[in-house]
Design a protein that fits this description.
- The structure is a homodimer.
- Chain A is α/β, with parallel strands linked by helices.
- Chain A has 2 domains: 2-148 and 289-339, Alpha-Beta Complex (Quinone Oxidoreductase, Chain A, domain 1), CATH 3.90.180; 150-285, 3-Layer(aba) Sandwich (Rossmann fold).
- Chain A is built from 12 helices and 16 strands.
- In chain A, strands 3, 5, 6, 7, 8, 15 and 16 form a 7-stranded mixed β-sheet that branches. In chain A, strands 11-10-9-12-13-14 form a 6-stranded parallel β-sheet, sandwiched between helices. In chain A, strands 2-1-4 form a 3-stranded antiparallel β-sheet, with helices on one face.
- In chain A, helix 7 links the parallel strand 10 and strand 11.
- Chain A is globular, with a radius of gyration of 20 Å.
- The termini of chain A are close together.
- Chains A and B meet through strand 13, helix 10 and strand 14 of A and strand 13, helix 10 and strand 14 of B.
Chain lengths: 340, 340
């Protein structure tokens, strides 16, 4: 089969590799319907995720069809359309029971999902079936968005304690930040301010329900936020980037007693703990436990209440995956969907 | 009047100073019934709170009787017994409305409460009246504990999201940590583990409802916590010290997806943000907004449901205040109550 392989920074290739097979009786093999490129894939692509010693398959977002299952798998079977959350989990351990599927004692990551097929360990705990009678082609991007990007924005909003009537700032106008706007509105936020300098991203933010867009950054951006929100900053800030600057922006924008919900993988983030302490500004979040949220989010996608797949502004066949990386790296695409 | 003054590290004196007076029409002057020494008073006493350029009045916890009020004060009047939360606040600004009285736009701290009288700005917003028909001498320590120490433990528990059925670890066996044990139990925690090596403190922890006491610290302590809690760590950890070591202990004891509620003023605390991110371990807390909690907590003290004043294991008249500092500094007393 063909699989996307990162050989070295900036060197993405579609290689011919061995087909995955059932290795454990709890596995499934899933044939891809759609995959995509994540902002976090750009870290190794840019050589910023540590030294890479050998070529590695890449990608972790997938919508697919079950091709085969191990002997103990009972929840899904051949032909089922399934959402593949970006980490696998057994959905039964003590930590899954607490909703932290990302720390499942039997969990882990995949061997590259920008590929024609993927082996999914812990298939029963991991895969979420799309009801056959509800499946349509038009739903593909929105269902694919449930494998990572939308639940990650949702996790930022949940972590930041967005609730009915909250005032919200979203730092980051990538696909995750835009998803955070949609998630915050879905959870009942009264006012959502998207921080974005890029016209096409601002447009999606507004489509997702953003009430205001602030183009300025740093102190100036934070001042604008405060002005919009009656002088005190936001109840909830969604930090969807993961850099030192974006985290600083987040804490500058949150009100005393408010919470920064962060889902951007932190790179060189330093926190001013005494200031956090004296202002009761909280830090909640981390890697999104996608599986924990799917039972809540899938119905809203199936009935069209939300269309999280609008973050995909580029669609390419798998054999142009390298172009997708280039486009996202150069910020010419927000998020690239790969077809098979 | 007599007031406690810190002249230099370890040099506590009871000085004769001018009586406080009404300076603004929103002030009250309160005559002290009981005050006490806080663990945080030991930082400047030990010379660890920055250089001190001149003698300073000290103390911020008080139960007293209103002696006089400014012309616009209507909520309290001469003769009322009042709890004086350790910061003053107007209880009406946008931040007070959000429950963050510690960041009140018209708020601040007092000019030393280990004194015979204190000026309380924003008297209407700050002072909480004890109903005259409920007041007894036996309630004095428990009411005094509501001015800071118990609501601070409560804030740690609320911040750590302690709720019905939570598993809880309390790091720190000072008066705040012990208060955290009581607060966690009051909020319905199923299992509370107090980390303490000191027999008399262990006894109070058990009296406050601790189900287990762990004497070990560091990795070994965290291992014991995990063993007690089925292998995964605590839902909620109350960090009630504020040192780098205690914060580390807290994060070692919390389960993935759990929350560290911190109320120890941070000194040299460094956070491992990537580990927090990958484990969804959260940091919530800060300076306790005492005033925000008093309407909820006072009734439980008045009807004897909780006895937070049990943290006072030494009672001294004001003129022996220096002995109280020595006793607390040498950990011979948990918390010293001062009588007038």
């Amino acid at each position: 089969m063909r699989a996307t392989v990162l050989h070295a920074p900036s060197d993405i290739r579609l290689d011919e590799v061995a087909d995955p097979t059932i290795e454990q009786d709890t596995d499934a093999v899933v044939r891809s319907l759609a995959s995509c490129i994540c902002g976090s894939d750009l870290w190794p692509y840019r050589g910023l995720a540590g030294t890479q010693s050998k070529p590695q398959k890449i990608g972790h977002e997938l919508l697919g069809v079950v091709e085969s299952v191990g002997s103990s798998v009972s929840g899904v079977s051949e032909g089922d359309v399934v959402i593949v959350p970006f980490l696998y989990s057994d959905n039964t351990c003590a930590l899954c029971a607490k909703g932290v599927h990302t720390s499942c004692v039997n969990g882990g990551g995949y061997d590259g999902c920008q590929a024609e097929k993927v082996r999914v360990p812990q298939a029963d705990g991991t895969l979420v079936k799309v009801p056959a009678d509800r499946m349509t082609d038009a739903l593909v991007p929105h269902l694919l968005a449930l494998s990572d990007v939308f639940p990650t924005g949702h996790h930022a909003a949940v972590s930041a304690r967005v609730t009915e009537g909250s005032t919200v700032v979203v730092v980051g106008d990538g696909a995750v930040g835009l998803s955070g706007v949609l998630a915050a509105k879905r959870l009942g936020a009264e006012t959502v301010i998207a921080m974005s300098r890029h016209e096409p991203r601002q447009a999606i933010a507004r489509q997702f329900g953003a009430d205001h867009v602030v183009a300025e950054r740093g102190r100036e951006g934070a001042e604008q936020v405060k002005e919009i929100l009656g002088g005190i900053g936001a109840d909830a800030v969604l930090e969807c980037v993961g850099t030192g600057d974006s985290m600083k922006q987040a804490f500058q924008s949150v009100r005393p007693g408010g919470t920064v919900g962060y889902v951007g993988m932190p790179h060189d983030v330093k926190l001013n703990v005494p200031v956090m302490f004296f202002t009761n500004s909280n830090l909640v979040g981390g890697v999104a436990p996608v599986r924990a949220y799917l039972d809540e989010l899938l119905p809203d996608v199936l009935d069209g209440t939300i269309e999280p797949g609008l973050v995909f502004d580029q669609t390419l066949p798998l054999d142009q995956v390298a172009d997708g990386y280039t486009a996202m790296d150069e910020r010419k695409a927000i998020k690239t969907l790969l077809t098979f």
